[in-house]
Design a protein that fits this description.
The chain has helices at 2-13, 15-34, 44-54, 60-67, 71-74, 83-98, 100-107, 110-141, 157-185, 190-201, 203-216, 220-242, 282-302, 305-309, 312-317, 323-344, 347-356, 368-401, 406-409, 414-437, and strands at residues 144-145, 148-149, 244-251, 255-256, 263-264, 269-275, 359-360. The protein is built from 20 helices and 7 strands. By secondary structure, it is mainly alpha-helical. It is 68% helix and 5% strand. The protein starts with a helix and ends in a 27-residue tail after the last helix. The strands form 3 sheets. The protein has a 3-stranded antiparallel sheet. The chain has 2 domains: 1-201, SecY subunit domain (Preprotein translocase SecY subunit); 202-256 and 263-464, SecY subunit domain (Preprotein translocase SecY subunit).
Length: 464
């Protein structure tokens, strides 16, 4: 405990780090404050009650509400949060794999290319926000509880639509600006921190509800077991996030000096750290989005929730605790992990760069043989990574099946846990870097904290 307080003192002593942390906390407070400012013409209490009565607790809207920290159900000016920017970033990233123009911008044009990509992403974010804003307002206008509409009927439709679409778009652009400011002048990872703070916002209430329900039922031992399992799951997730397979590489010997004084310099050794989970959280997001389609399609076709429940298959696919849902979900996460890893890790690029740098993998010929070797290693390590990722994805449903309340069960795995673990590790890594630069002790006794991006090629990957 003394070491912990000493570390806090050291962090506070560093003026730049102190200012960055306070600046980040201030902007996060502004972001959370915006989630409580309600759009004009909407009754948030009626809307929340209507959503609660019509939602199954496992739909796309619940996921968005989690990422926005409850702003979605409150109909606040931050109801869409940073999600349109995330959607735009994913689209641009996927275009970078398929469209040569975007591939050239992201990989070959350096800083100027990255600026163009950022500008295109911002414009696409505004376009997506306008579309999603209109869809969201249509959804809100259709909601009612106990015969009372969520939208004040005295507000003219034209004013309601125009003003609120502008406000929602402004809220998303403002959230995007806050994320960029946190990245530039704060502790870093601004957009990820905004998502994380939204996820964490629901944790205290869910945790308090779980404690109260377990104590009321006299199941104190169950609560202790839950906390122990949650700790173990978090530790396992940390291992998956930072786990790497190191491929040793060696730079060829070179002659130092001139004439008869020439002596061979020793070959420098390094390694290529291939991540066990190179795909990150993306496979779960893609699989989760596809798992929503059967329920959405069924509700569109059937028109009523009662008709949906009349079909056993559709009912099972709409229940995240059912066996068919989790089996399909698990398989899709494993499959998407392989697909996204194939897009993210390019063995040919590694082989070409090693050849240009006069480096090689011991026992492997340069060129195609090196690319094939890296590809085979990536394929082998992706299997356990994909299986573990699939297991993490279905852990919330397992926790729910054992009696954990739905709000608290989401922290046992899935997108929420992976995002939180990754962002916390990145943030701690940033803080530790500032401490080590000032010759203070790090945050851990031995070694260094590794974030999600620590698995890059260290000496040769910076220029890839």
């Amino acid at each position: 405990m003394k070491r912990f307080f000493d570390t806090l003192k050291n962090i506070w002593k560093i003026k730049e780090l102190r200012q960055r942390i306070l600046f980040t906390l201030g902007l996060l407070f502004v972001f959370r404050f915006g989630s409580f400012v309600v759009l004009p013409g909407i009754n948030p209490a009626i809307l929340e009650e209507a959503i609660k009565s019509s939602s199954s607790g496992n739909d796309l809207l619940s996921l968005i509400n989690t990422f926005t920290g409850g702003a979605f159900k409150k109909a606040s000016i931050m109801a869409l949060g940073i999600m349109p920017y995330i959607t735009a970033s994913i689209i641009i990233q996927l275009l970078g794999f398929a469209v040569p123009y975007f591939q050239r911008l992201q990989q070959k044009e350096g800083e100027s290319g990255r600026r163009k990509v950022n500008q295109i992403t911002r414009m696409l974010t505004v376009a997506i926000t306008l579309v999603q804003g209109g869809t969201y307002l249509s959804y809100v206008k259709s909601m009612s509880a106990n015969g009372i509409p969520a939208v004040d009927p005295s507000v003219p439709d034209g004013i309601f639509w125009l003003s609120n679409i502008i406000i929602l778009s402004t809220g998303t652009v403002f959230a995007m600006w806050l994320g960029e400011r946190i990245t530039d002048k704060g502790i870093g990872n601004g957009v990820s921190l905004l998502i994380t703070i939204g996820i964490i916002a629901s944790l205290p209430a869910a945790f308090a509800f779980e404690i109260n329900s377990q104590f009321s039922a006299g199941r104190i031992l169950n609560l202790i077991v839950e906390m122990a399992l949650l700790y173990g799951i978090i530790m396992a997730t940390v291992m998956v996030v930072i786990g790497v397979r190191r491929i040793p590489i060696q730079f060829a010997k070179r002659m130092v000096g001139r004439g008869s004084a020439n002596i061979p310099a020793s070959g420098v050794r390094d390694y290529i750290p291939l991540k066990v989970n190179a795909a990150g959280v993306m496979p779960i997001i893609f699989a989760q989005a596809l798992m929503f389609l059967p329920a959405v399609a069924a509700q569109i076709i059937a028109g009523q929730q009662s008709d949906l429940n009349a079909h056993p298959i559709l009912r099972a696919l709409n229940d995240f605790t059912s066996a068919p849902y989790n089996i399909i979900y698990f398989i899709m996460v494993v499959a998407f992990t392989y697909v996204y890893t194939a897009l993210m890790v390019n063995p040919t690029q590694y082989a070409e760069y090693l050849k240009r740098q006069n480096a090689f993998i011991p026992g492997v010929k340069p060129g195609k043989a090196t690319a094939d070797f890296i590809d085979s290693v990536t394929t082998r390590i992706t299997l356990p990574g994909a299986v573990i990722l699939g297991f993490i994805a279905i852990l919330p449903s397992i926790a729910r099946a054992f009696g954990v309340n739905t709000g608290f069960a989401q922290f046992f795995g899935g997108t929420s846990l992976l995002i939180m673990v990754g962002v916390v590790l990145d943030t701690l890594q940033q803080i530790e870097s500032h401490l080590l630069m000032r010759r203070y002790d790090g945050l851990v006794k031995s070694g260094r904290i590794q974030g999600r991006n620590s698995g890059r090629m260290q000496s040769i990957g910076a220029n890839m």
